[in-house]
Amino acid sequence: MTLVPAAVLVDDAREADAAVGAFNVITLEHAEAVVAGAERAGRPVVLQLSENAIAFHRTPDAIAAACVAVARTSSTDVALHLDHVTGDELVRRTADLGFSSVMYDGSKHPYDANVARTADAAAWASEHGIWLEAELGEVGGKDGAHAPGVRTDPAEARAFVEATGVDSLAVAVGSSHAMTSQDARLDHDLIRALRDAVPVPLVLHGSSGVPDDELRAAIGAGMVKINVGTALNVAFTGAVREHLAADGTVTDPRKYLAGARDAISDVVAHVLGVLALSPRS
Ligand code: G3H
Ligand code: ZN
What's the gap in Å between 227 CA and the centre of ligand 1? Predict the structure, then answer.
């Protein structure tokens, strides 16, 4: 068990009428915790590194190398994926960073520009053996506000996939990014319509705000890759805050990062447990 392509994990999940969990890494401790949670759950996992997280580290090299090392030493299958990449240069670094897949995010562009830019990224990815995810219908929320209103149109999604040749599609069905409460409501009829309209696996972004029963129903309706980020940071920061409140003199970061890492691992094991119990209806 070790580093595997995201395409394999997604295809396996799809064939099993199930879903694979994909979790966002910011620090080394995130990567260690996600893999520890997956090992505890006995499930494969996708470690994903966003363009924003890379910007925090200033260059992709060190944090990507850390993800590769953590994946290689795991006792479960781990895939490495670049997430929400808007720049061509980073898309084209996917393979040399040791990653097998990338999400090119052209969702902020008007439809025609999104098609043109995504098709370009997909052509490059296909030539280089990289699995490419794209987004149609912006899953909002990165500005901090829950923006559940946007929806991906099934006919437009079919045309988008045909025109771009992408391997998977992130769609807007009621979730939004960066939610710290689990009260998003998804449009399950729309998920089913999208599943029937497009030939590629569907990806749910902004899953931190989706309650467990909604997540199960979304997988039942056709979601195959489930992206979770914010919930990890809620747990991580909550554990740090709790430790610092109880111990005002601590200086060694290991004292509070250990608990924070465990808190992420607990979230990952829980989410993967929910996914394991959610076969497609
Ligand atoms: O691409 C990453 C995911 O969409 C994570 O969203 O931070 O709201 O869970 P989230
Ligand atoms: Zn996302």
Answer: 5
Ligand 2 center–CA 247 separation, angstroms: 35
Over range 112-136, report the average pLDDT. 97
8 A C-beta contact, residue 218 and residue 210: yes
Q: What share of the chain is helix, strand, coil (3-state, %, to 5)?
A: 50, 15, 35
Chain centre to alpha carbon of residue 138: 15
Rounded to 5°, angle at Cα 238 from 235 and 243: 125
DSSP 97: T
Instruction: Determine the 3-state secondary structure of 263 from DSSP.
Output: helix
With cut-offs at 50, 70 and 90, classify the pLDDT of residue 265: very high
Which residue of 230, 232, 237, 274 sits with most ligand 1 atoms within 8 Å of its CB, as the best mutation to test the pocket? 230
pLDDT tens profile 81-99: 999 999 999 999 999 999 9
| 189 in active site | no
What are the E-state strand segments in 161-269? 168-171, 202-204, 223-228
Q: Check if the beta carbon of residue 262 is closer than 8 Å to that of residue 239.
A: yes
- CA atoms of 4 and 72, how far apart (whole Å): 9
- What single-letter amino acid sits at 124? W
115 phi and psi, to 5 degrees? -60, -50
Residue 104 near residue 131 (C-beta atoms within 8 A)? no
Q: Is the pLDDT of residue 281 over 90?
A: no
Cα-to-centroid distance, 229 and ligand 1 (Å): 4
